[in-house]
Amino acid sequence: MGKSGNNISAEELWEGIEKMAAGLGFADCGCAHLAPLSGSREEKRYREAEQMGHFGKMEYLKRNVDKRMDPSLLLPDAKSVIVFLAPYSAESVTTQDGLRFSSYALGEDYHKVIKDKLYRIVSFIEETSGRKKICRVFTDSAPVMERAWAVKAGLGFIGKNNFLVSPRAGIKNFLGIIITAVELPYSAKTAENACGQCTRCLDACSRKALYEPFRIDASKCLSYKTIEEPLDEADKGRTDTSRVDFSQKWVFGCDDCADACPYNRFNKPGWPEFSSNREFLKTCTRDFWNSITEEEFQSRFKNSPILRAGLSKIRQNISR
Ligand code: B12
Ligand code: SF4
Ligand code: SF4
Asked: Nearest C-alpha to atom 1 of ligand 2 is from which residue?
């Protein structure tokens, strides 16, 4: 591997990135050579899912498929995809009246938290290599096949529940991505699927969204139902939650197929930013959601993933 600029070798640059990632709290990172996914098994699976209607009303998944399959359309001259694992392993919240909030939504908006840290690594890459505008940062926000790149970067395998499962850092990790024009040493690590005969995640999925190993009908998934599915016209502006039953229910996201997984034992401690609202959410019973105004909701959940669903949608989820 040659020099990446400023007379530093690609290996030295990568060592610096790894060290910095560990210092910032990332549980692992890896790097893949950027090559289009066009014609790959990942593209085939993606197009099958779309054709079978599994994307429901997530229109953004149907747009920019060319970019999704070829990240060099997102950054000219892109050479490498670096993938980072950001642990969020706090236990989900259940209120005393049985409302459940998924473990990934208990703190600050993860997009911002992760990107802020990745921008620091970008500054390091640019300063060290002596080149500007050679990186782009993504997390859950753009047409990038994040799980597929995590596998290529050697961070783990795709489990039967569709998660990127890391043999070193478990299952509760967000993925963060830097696409860069710098050529780096590519990961030698690989991880074969190690689910074996286990089917705990499929058994745990009450909606049968995981309808066979490695296949999800996202339009049936509670995460889609409680966050992404557009609010029913009839339910817009709902102000009460009177049609409530008393069983436990997921109100924002779902952790059933993740929590069932034995790889949770390898989870690293979650970043405190990802659980900063945990104690408060425990107090958010039906009475709270009934009485809060739109303005209070906007201000209380300003920097939280929960804002994405909106107050009316949360009320709909509670009364469903
Ligand atoms: C749309 C979306 C959703 C949708 C659809 C999910 C889905 N499984 O398709 C909904 C709203 C349901 C959802 C739910 C959740 N999501 Co989501 N979601 C996304 C998003 C934006 C796009 C995913 C996508 O393209 N789906 C389409 C399918 C077809 O593609 P895919 O899941 O990427 O799967 C490909 C690879 O797995 C690939 N593949 C690669 N190698 C291999 C090898 C083998 C053997 C196989 C079989 C497949 C395979 O094949 C697939 C098709 O190409 C990504 C961020 C991103 N840009 O990638 C986050 C992302 C996948 N979500 C994430 C999270 C945290 C969740 C939830 C846990 C949130 C929650 N608690 O409610 C749940 C988990 C549900 C589940 N079992 O997957 C994380 C996952 C982290 C991880 N460790 O895997 C991501 C990566 C966001 C992030 N940056 O951290 N999500
Ligand atoms: S998140 Fe919940 S509904 Fe979605 S696939 Fe997993 S267990 Fe099923
Ligand atoms: S629960 Fe079992 S089958 Fe599902 S992803 Fe984890 S190890 Fe694989």
From this structure: 254
Pairing of strands 249-252, 99-101: parallel
User: Left if phi > 0, otherwise alpha if psi is -120 to 50, otherwise beta: which for 180?
Assistant: beta
Answer whether residue 242 shows pLDDT above 60.
Answer: no
Phi-psi label, residue 106: left if phi above 0, alpha if psi -120 to 50, beta otherwise: alpha
Ligand 1 pocket test, candidate residues 117, 140, 177, 195, most atoms within 8 A of CB: 140
Is 185 exposed, middle or buried (CB count within 10 Å of its CB: 0-12, 13-18, 19+)?
A: middle
| Ligand 3 atom 7 nearest Cα | 195
Q: How big is the chain by its Cα radius of gyration, in Å?
A: 20
For 210-227, what is each residue's pLDDT tens digit?
A: 999 999 999 999 999 999
Helix (H) or strand (E) holding 288: helix 286-291
Domain boundaries, the chain: 1-320
pTM of the model: 0.95
DSSP-derived 3-state class of residue 80: strand
Residue 137's CB is within 10 A of a number of other CB atoms, namely 20
